[in-house]
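tool_call: predict_structure(chain=1)
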Amino acid sequence: MNTRALALHLAAGGLPVLPLRAGKVPFGNCPACTRNKCGGRPNMKIPGRCACPLPCHGWAAATTGTHRHATEWAPYWERAAAVAYHPGGAGLTVVDLDDAAAIGWARATLPPTRTVPTTRGEHWIYQGAMPSANGVRPGVDVKSHMAYARWLGPGEGTMTVLPAEVRALIVKAPVPARRAPSGLAVSGAGGACPHRTPAYLERGLTMAEQRITAADSGVHATVYRAFLAVLATHGRCGCLTDTHIDRLFTAAQGKGESLRHCTDAWANARARLGM
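tool_result:
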């Protein structure tokens, strides 16, 4: 069966497919989409296919439309070297095992499922979709949403529901917050502290932490404003210590801010207040 006939057969069965050229890569963008003139891939941030009528956007072009494969895409299938499919679009996840060591790990760790031999290893196919990720461990890629896999045959074995062990492969361990550099506190002007009780400073720090943690957009600006508010109220009397500042930096880093961004925001807030 040639690639076009195979594509029509798979598409008719509900598998979204696309042609691959030599080198196992999708066809390049068509003239209408060159240099992003088409406006880009409409659905790149969420699983879905591209609105372009030609197969020039990789996984986002995959479709079950047999009429499209038989008409507009016919010239591409005549030049295609292989058939690929979008696993996530079919509700599937492919665990791509590149070598014997990866296969050995899978057999010892993952539930058995449908298996397809590849050039160097195996594809383990599970029922269920998830985000894709490459290099989740040595020799192991996960292909589902926003990815494509080569069609190498139906495989053998009963397909298993996507297990937690596979979903856990793409979960990254949280990165520990880096401590704020020492010496960021502002020296007091002398005299009695206007904050009559430590609770006043504690409330101010807690409010700033909560404001940063609750931010769901504009995190950079929120961090800067929180730093500015703390410095404006507590920064001139010498109450703030490196420990207090480290709490604010930890909250900011918990929202994805880097240590450098935190340090810059703190410096900008101090400059704004003339400290």
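agent: Residues 42-47 have pLDDT under 50 and may be disordered. Proceeding to next step.
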